[in-house]
Amino acid sequence: MNYLESRKYVIQAIFIAIGAVYLIKLFYIQVLDDSYKTAAESNAVRPVIQYPFRGLVYDRHGTLLVENTPVYDLMVVPKEAKAIDTLKFCQLVGITLPEYREKIAAAKKYSYVKPSPFLQRLSNTEFAAIQDNLVDFPGFYINARTVRGYPHQSLAHALGYIGEISPLQLEDTTYRGYRQGDYLGISGIEREYEKFLMGKRGVKYTMVNVRGIEKGSFKDGAYDTLSEAGQNLVTTIDLKLQQYGELLMSGGKVGSIVAIEPKTGEILALVSAPYFDPSMLTGKELGNNYMKLLNDPTKPLFNRPLMATYPPGSIFKLAQALIAMQEGVLTPNTGYPCNWSLVKCSHRHEYPANLNIAIENSCNPYFYQVFRSVVNRGKYRNIYEDARQGLDNWNRHIKSFGFASHLNIDLPGEKKGLMPNSQFYDRIYKRDGWKFPTIYSVSIGQGETGVTPLQMANFAATIANRGFYYKPHIVRSVGEKGKPLPEYSVKNYTSVNPRYFPPVIEGMQLVVDKGTGRNASLKHIGVVVCGKTGTVQNPHGKDHSVFIAFAPKDDPKIAIAVYVENAGGGAIAAAPMASLMMEKYLTDTVTTAYRKRWEADMISGGFYKWGK
Amino acid sequence: MRTSYKISRNIDWVTIGLYGLMVMLGWMNIYAAVYNPEHVTSIFDFTLNSGKQLAWIGTSVVIIVMLFAIDYKAYDSLAYAIYGLVILVLLGTLLLASPIKGSRSWLVITDTVRLQPAEFAKFATALAVSKFMSSINLRQQNWKDQAKLAGMALLPPIIIILQNETGSALVFGAFTLAFFREGMSPLILIIGAVAVFIFILTLLIPQWYLAGALTVLMGAYLWLNFHRLKRHLAMYVGIWAAVLIMVFSVTYFIDNVLQEHQQNRIKVLVDPEVDPLGVGWNVTQSKIAIGSGGFFGKGFLEGTQTKFDFVPEQSTDFIFCTVGEEHGWIGSLVIIGLFIALLMRIVFVAERQRSVFGRTYGYCVASIIFFHFLVNVGMTIGLAPVVGIPLPFFSYGGSSLWSFTILLFILLAIDAHRKLDLGRG
Asked: What UniProt keywords apply to this chain's record, in alphabetical order (chain B) (predicted)?
């Protein structure tokens, strides 16, 4: 026998040793230790999940937006629910015998020994009636749980809703730790902040004997864990302003209002119209209501401030002016003729001898020529190449305002929008197939541009801050005493030097004082508003009405974007709505008689008469 | 093959007897695991796991006949081809299969029939490494050959880990036992054992305390025996450093490399409160079931804990619970005895081979079966982490039964012709 062959003894010894160790351990737990037999004799250890209290959501002033309301589920363990008076039981809970059999069969299909819901979301009266008589029916017990409740009917899109975890998510490893029947955030804040709101589940093991009677806790609660409540969220929303915005956009109007505090990037109001009551997506009727909302042709589930991208219209002229000044091809004193042969102007007005007059009157030919001077720089002999380079340079600037990119708001589903570059047009027209006249409509915010209402409001905030913005966000802190995320105190500067902003702001003041945006004036409360109207041509119907503004001019407290679809010119619906919103926010109320009349016109849609 | 050579006379009937006994006992226990006193069904009912297992057993007999019918030399000459084919199927499954419970390891044949190619990688790899082993000499310190061998044994588990079937991949570690028999340095086994020991210590003791304690022990040992040991001081310091690195890397590995559920499966060994709803629940229920069996057990079909779903996967990975509960310690003794007897017999059969190929393959078979036995039974009694690998011949499942049948009966087919082999080793 060589020395390697003798190694077989080592291997055999390992085999025998393991077998012996296992038999000794088995002898210990099977013969010597009685505690396992006791555990088995009590027949069943029932894990009762202790659902944590989901975190609450507040507005910026501490008003409760989302709370928890208790609901009661009647649970059944089929194995224990055998010897019961079925007829009496059906009477008690108010179901028919066939219904009972069906539900028991369904429960058995899930598990014979694990609890499953028999009747879900009992009302308080049902609960009271059933609870007292349940002792006669082993195998049945009440499980208290909470669902989301909404003291106010506002902000449905941003709040989002919670729903049962889907089978697909259950198989997904990112949702490890969730179990069948668990609820989790499906959209909005509920989804974005799920890991803070959800809290930690606990579990209590109760021993149950053959007759379904609880015999106390398993191993004196050694394996029990307590549930931990989720963390509360303080949002940046001003509930009163939000409700007022929703009121203005009521009655089937389609559009968005976004208000931001420029000094912080905090979102004060986020209105998406048409909207719905958040409590529609909670409780028993969630499924039905969801289908109803989904099939509604006006798409109320669509979160327009973040997801709808529109051409920005004339508000875009402000960005064109800023970029042109940065590029050194425009000064505040540059004049261009209002030449209708280039592009039509919306109305007759005085000669745009400088930038202020051009902004005040929203002169299309003026900004046609401004944009042309940015794109066609004459740096290359080839005019196509010159336009390519000019446009790409412009695109770099425009992106620094947050256009054509995610602002990364703390809500799901945000769209990027579109700002064209040379590659974009090369794809459509082929290389060297386009030059400035092909793309001129971009100069006035039409054509191949797409901007979300959130980006518009952020743009207004950027101008209000004279050149930078804070990341717009809707949750200020996790927990009442939590601090805002550090990324929210970072100033995001645009590529345009802050010194070019004041001339544009002067122009915006003129817009409101005597130009196209007079309807947005807040002179009666002594506030200087800076704004810009936009009228977006709509090939499918009436023009969209757009307005962005901030106020007061020298110490901006609110920046706002209003976008009302098919409402006509920017002066008609968007400008007065913006002014009402700002008045509401700055003075907390709208009182004077003519302002009340405007308010009524906005709510009823009476503004449609204004254009005529 | 010469027709006059009667293979039936040379077939190892002892092994076949043990195999048959285990498969039949397994089938009965699967029936007991799915048996429902409320709704009595036949053991042959094809909608139940027991009925399906009978079908798997039937097909296994067909496979056995085929394995004996094939020219025994084919296992040697086709070893690399089989290995290559299995690697291709593994890769194909990884890239093409749709994930089932997060794992891309199943070939779906019909809705109810699906195969896990990872199971078949075991015998294919065993054949390939045995073939390679018969062409080299492991004792000669030829690192190129050793690297090739290691690569051959490591490639399938790497693909299997990518399929997210970590449990099946661990099985390939068992080959070290076979390599040891063929001349691998015992140091590797010893380091492995020390690593496991340190691994368990790190679970019980915080890493800094453990590192401190080991340093003090080592220091004291060197201090007291300084004169005797000073010549090898560098070596002892090296060992000390290696042990410390091991301590810290084990903790790092558990906390940073493993996914949370994998961490829990290990941590539950020392603390059943970890993950009380998940793996902790399984281990607790499994121990209650086995522990409640007592000395003689509750009797066939009389178990209460292994019925229904107190114990998860009761007819597959946790089949040993049924044995423990219904047949008590005596039942456990019989099953463990059968496994040890089978392992001993395989070692005996391996040692009587004249070729290195046959002998190495025999040890591979023993090692793989032993590893499954070690981990599967260990996890049900809380001595091994919960790793989802089946108990050979007992657990319900076609892929598993087929693959163990093929694994074992290739050895018996080679063994039956051992007298024709002129021997090369």
From this structure: Cell shape, Membrane, Transmembrane, Transmembrane helix
Q: Work out whether strand A57-58 and strand A233-235 pair parallel, antiparallel, or are unpaired.
A: parallel
Q: How far apart are CA A199 and CA A25, in angstroms?
A: 39
**Which residues in chain A are contacts of B351 at CB distance < 8 A?**
5, 8
In Å, how far is A169's CA from the nearest CA of chain B? Answer: 11
User: Do residue A208 and residue A316 come from a single domain?
Assistant: no
Flag whether B1 is in a domain: no
- Chain A interface mutation, best of B166, B258, B343, highest count of A Cβ atoms under 10 Å: B343
Least confident of A60-74, A416-430, B75-89, B134-148: B134-148
Q: Is A185 exposed, middle or buried (0-12, 13-18, 19+ CB in 10 A)?
A: buried
Specify if B330 maps to a domain: yes
- CATH at A265: 3.40.710.10
Secondary structure, 3-state, A154-216: CCHHHHCCEEECCHHHHHCHHHCCCCCCCEEECCHHHHHCHHHHCCECEEEEEEECCCCCEEE
Whether B310 contacts chain A with CB within 8 A: yes
Q: Which domain holds residue B253?
A: 191-257
ipTM score here? 0.90
Residues B199 and B172 in one domain: no
Q: How far is B384 from chain A (nearest CA, A)?
A: 11
Q: What is the pTM of this model?
A: 0.61
Task: Check A172 against B102: CB less than 8 A apart.
Answer: yes
Nearest CB among A8, A21, A23 relative to B351 is that of A8
- Identify whether residues A270 and A216 lie together within a single domain: no
Closest CA to A393 of A484, A327, A294: A327
Domain containing A58 — which CATH number? Answer: 3.90.1310.10
Q: How many domains does chain A have?
A: 2
Assess B187–A contact: CB distance below 8 Å, yes or no.
no
Phi/psi-derived region of residue B215, left when phi > 0, alpha when psi is between -120 and 50, beta in every other case: alpha
List CB contacts (< 8 A) between A173 and chain B.
102, 259
Residues A212 and A283 in one domain: no
Residues B162 and B217 in one domain: no
Nearest CA in chain A to B279: A177
Q: State residue A210's pLDDT score.
A: 44
Indicate if B279 and B357 belong to the same structural domain.
Answer: yes
Cross-chain residue pair B182–A4, CB shorter than 8 Å: yes
- pLDDT given for residue B138 in this prediction: 59
Residue ranges of B 250-309 with Cβ closer than 8 A to chain A: 259-261, 272-273, 276-277, 280-281, 284-285, 287-295, 304-305, 308-309
Q: What is the pLDDT of residues B384-396, one digit of tens each?
A: 888 888 999 999 9
Residue B310 sits in the same domain as residue B371: yes
Mean pLDDT by 10 residues, chain A (612 residues): 81 94 92 79 66 90 90 82 82 87 84 78 80 82 82 92 84 76 88 90 69 62 79 94 94 93 96 91 80 89 93 94 94 90 81 91 92 91 91 95 94 93 91 89 92 96 96 91 82 95 95 90 92 89 92 94 90 92 92 87 78 48
**Closest-CA distance of chain A to residue B259, Å:** 10
Full domain range(s) for residue A547: 239-290+305-609
Residue A188 included in any domain = yes
CA quadruple A318, A321, A322, A325: dihedral, nearest 10: -170
Q: Are A604 and A251 in contact (CB under 8 A)?
A: yes
Q: How far apart are CA A124 and CA A498, in angstroms?
A: 61
Note whether B200 and B137 are same-domain residues. no
CB contact set of A127 (below 8 Å; sequence gap of 6+): A72, A142
